[in-house]
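Illustration 12: tRNA pseudouridine synthase 1.
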Amino acid sequence: MDNTTLPTSTNKTSSIISHTLNDSNNKVNPTSDNSPVTTGNIVKKRSLEQEQSPGEENDESKDNKNKRTRTPREGVPKKPRLPKRKVAVMLGYCGAGYHGMQYNPPSKTIESELFNAFVKSGAISEDNSTDLKKNAFQRAARTDKGVHAGGNVISLKMIIEDPDIKTKINDFLPSGIRIWGIQRVNNGFDSRKACSSRWYEYLLPTYSLLGPKPDSPLYNDLHKITGFVDGESDEFWNKLDEDLKKTFTPEQLDAIENYTFDYKNNGNDKTDEKIKGTEIAQSPEPAELDTNVNEKVYLLYKKHKEITNTHRREYRLSNERLEHFREVMKRYLGAHNFHNFTVGKDFKDPSAIRYMKDIRVSDPFVIENTEWVSIKIHGQSFMLHQIRKMISMATLAVRCQCASNLVDIAFGQDKMNIPKAPALGLLLEHPVYDGYNPRLEKIGYETITFDKWAGEMHDFKMKHIYDKIYAEESEENTFYAFFGYIDSFNKLLEGRQQQNDKTTNFEYLVDGERRFDELKQRKEEQETKQGAEEEGTSENNEALVPAEPSNV
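Figure caption equivalent — predicted structure in token form:
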């Protein structure tokens, strides 16, 4: 946070004048007769200049007349400079289709859209449009690819003489990006450094909390090693299995099971193409299947997918499972070492310590027949991918019926591979400026809050963010594909060396409780050893203290 104070212009000017006059006694005026420069001489010189006739020119004025006026380009007059003011700009945006917030040409980003609109509306000169430093530009939060924001703040110098400048900027922006307000701030304001904390929201379909699919590698490991029992998930999968057996023959189910599925392509199967006339889906092994068989398997697979999707969207989360999820999420509260929840951070790196102030998990709600929960996280600051990994870890703990202390293991020194939950459900709610707002009020500026635009922001989020999240999940099955990849991870790595690498697979989901017990035992042993050492040191110190003199 910027703690500089703003000096008054009167004191600063008087100080400069006083300093100049005091130092002038030791200088000479190069245009005079080498007499000392005093206030009297200055007045005398000005009066002599004023007595010159309009037609006369002294040597200095002739030299200035002969100087060439410089322009940026030969023959092109320089545009008049308009005053720029330091402002805070409140905005919201839908991140779908953008490579994140940060300006990064030639990639399409939120900031590239903003600067294009700033230039066209006259808020920024074209000369300064390609250099963010010239505009003292800064952002409160740098969102990743595909991440949305109901509210974000940028600070920069803009030309705001036009009272309709906000409307003009919005006219040049796509409908998925909106400017809520533009407010004057002091020159030392930095939207990132002045930000006290940030609220994020993550929307999660509740079926994501179902246990692993039966016969998947993760499911088999859980049953084999831990005796995994999950009545709620087993009931769901059994009902689905019964419905599928009523619809397909065993031979058809076997053909569907062997159908190639591309997990790397966000869950979209390789052969998910429209069948038009003679155009058919491509078989993963075209030499073994003729055209008719290939098309039939494709259609069977599509029917199987529809039934599975219907069951998944009809799932409703139990109170017990919801409370389990809330309990796990609460483990993030407070200051912890989140080195496992980002990339490129070591356990000993002080910057990996982050403080979570509040976490709220809503009651389930249904949108277009799919049940969702909203998770809101209020943190002092966040690292790259941190929230997506926090959501993923908590969700996996519930899916695998792990104790909430699994999160505590992730805070430890051991390196763990925590996958990133889909970016689809993440949005920046808004930054908070509680620490800086009193300073803005003190110097006569408005505080930075989003309260006055709450209605507009809600309507925007419903239309451009929430509806887009719901529609994309319904069409792409993003979360189902993500967790399907996790469940089948070991199978995908068959024959590779990484399969036995604990940092690559998700073994902690299977032996998490055992590892926690080991960690707890190790900590107790260290504390016992440390206590013994301290006791021994104390005894040694007592032996070194001279005895009090005897009265004998």
